[in-house]
Specification:
Blueprint lengths: L7 H9 L6 E5 L5 H8 L3 E6 L2 H10 L4 E4 L14 E5 L10 H11 L4 E6 L4 H6 L6 H16 L3 E15 L2 H11 L4 H6 L1 H11 L1 E3 L2 E15 L5
Parallel strand pairs: 1-2, 1-4, 2-3, 4-5
Antiparallel strand pairs: 5-8, 6-8, 7-8
């Protein structure tokens, strides 16, 4: 069965909108690209990332937002400080033994829901990326941590969606630049495996108008505290 195409921004607009005046925390914000897009739509944005260099870049790009160097498992904010907290492609980067604490922290600082969007360990983008970094284990661990939190009754799923984020790249260099932008430490490996990645892009991708389309399936979960209403 074909999945609908979409983006994280589409999901955020639908589930958390209208964004004007909403206070949102972007957990694992990186250099602030998504944070900036949400701020441009009127959201009052804050972000955290454990990498100081990413926080510095985010502050330079978006001086009107608040950014702090912190992991998701220790958020430097008061209880109920935000209308919602979001993890977009970041929850699986939380250390495995800290995933449960990160969920608890997100619930603590949000007076509303927590939105988690995670890439699945499948799809053309994932297959092409594997020589650079195979995230099969950590992506599965993230989903397992979410399932454990549900089983414990700390939170429940208010809405869920699986969709394909469709990306198009003119060549392997553009694809690897995207992969490295998420984690600059990947750069040496990316250079070394570029021929293998190019072959995988040709195998798994679809050629469209001179570019290679690589779909990445995602799951989106809107979480609320406590057990689901009966």
């Amino acid at each position: 069965m074909a999945r609908p195409a979409g983006t994280a921004l589409d999901v955020i607009r639908e589930w958390l909108g209208p964004l004007e005046g909403r206070s949102l925390l972007d957990i694992g914000c990186g250099g602030g690209v998504l944070t900036g897009r949400l701020a441009a739509e009127g959201a009052r944005m804050s972000g955290v990332d454990p990498a100081p260099e990413a926080v510095a870049a985010a502050r330079a790009a978006l001086p009107g937002a608040r950014f702090e160097a912190a992991g998701g498992e220790a958020l430097p904010f008061e209880d109920g400080a935000f209308d919602a907290a979001i993890f977009v492609n970041s929850f699986h980067h939380v250390p495995l033994d800290a995933m449960g604490r990160a969920l608890h922290e997100a619930l603590r600082v949000s007076r509303g829901p927590v939105l988690i969007i995670e890439p699945l360990a499948e799809g053309a983008f994932f297959e092409a990326m594997r020589p650079v970094e195979d995230e099969t284990v950590i992506r599965a661990a993230a989903l397992a941590a979410l399932a454990a939190a549900m089983e414990a009754g700390e939170m429940h799923i208010a809405a869920s969606l699986t969709y394909d984020d469709v990306r198009r790249f003119p060549d392997v260099e553009a694809f690897l630049a995207k992969v490295v932008s998420v984690d600059p430490a990947r750069a040496p490996v990316a250079r070394a495996v570029a021929p293998e990645v190019a072959a995988l892009m040709a195998r798994w991708g679809t050629l469209e108008d001179g570019a290679i389309r690589l779909n990445q399936p995602h799951t989106a979960l809107l979480l609320k505290r406590g057990t689901a209403p009966s």
